């Protein structure tokens, strides 16, 4: 009879102690260095919204394009620092090779073609963000 009473009391005591201990941790020990939220300037965001988000957002129908580059995840903190840098460098690389948007997509959506000014603006932004994050 005593065990039936003591065991639940013990479990509740241990849980209470754990909750008390974890809530009293000093916030300086919580490491959020891997959480990165980047700011996309309005002029860059307008281009991305108009020309890229159809394939590279949470709402995109093509899972492969969304998986390779998702601007929603890039801008809301879903990627670690290393992943953000990698994605930004990939943007610069793909735009430098004139690979985005792809020709197959542009055949059906010619209005989505990036002008050289738009491509340079996005590329310069991505390169600058990447360099800043790398400490360059």
What structural class do helix, strand and pairing data support?
mainly alpha
Number of helices: 7
Number of strands: 0
Q: What's the Cα radius of gyration?
A: 23 Å
Instruction: Tell me the fraction of residues in β-strands, as a range.
Output: under 5%
Largest sheet: none
Stretches with pLDDT under 50, minimum 5 residues: 23-32
Order of helices and strands: HHHHHHH
Shape: elongated
Q: Percent helix among the residues?
A: 55-70%
Rounded mean pLDDT is 80
Compute the separation of the termini in Å: 69 Å
Fold and architecture overview:
This protein has 136 residues and is an all-alpha fold. The protein has a domain at 42-134. The chain has helices spanning 2-23, 42-51, 63-68, 71-76, 81-96, 103-108, 116-134. Helix 2 (42-51) packs across helix 7 and helix 5 packs antiparallel against helix 7 (116-134).
Short structural summary:
The protein is mainly α and 136 residues long. 62% of the residues lie in helices and 0% in strands. It is elongated, with a radius of gyration of 23 Å.
């Amino acid at each position: 009879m005593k065990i039936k009473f003591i065991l639940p009391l013990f479990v509740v005591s241990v849980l209470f102690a754990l909750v008390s201990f974890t809530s009293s941790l000093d916030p300086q020990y919580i490491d959020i260095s891997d959480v990165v939220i980047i700011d996309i300037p309005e002029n860059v965001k307008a281009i991305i919204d108009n020309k890229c988000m159809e394939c590279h957002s949470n709402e995109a129908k093509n899972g492969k394009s969304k998986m390779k580059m998702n601007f929603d995840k890039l801008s809301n903190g879903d990627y670690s620092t290393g992943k953000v840098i990698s994605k930004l460098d990939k943007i610069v690389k793909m735009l430098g090779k004139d690979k985005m948007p792809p020709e197959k997509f542009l055949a059906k959506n010619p209005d989505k073609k990036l002008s050289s000014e738009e491509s340079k603006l996005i590329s310069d932004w991505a390169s600058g963000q990447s360099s800043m994050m790398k400490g360059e």
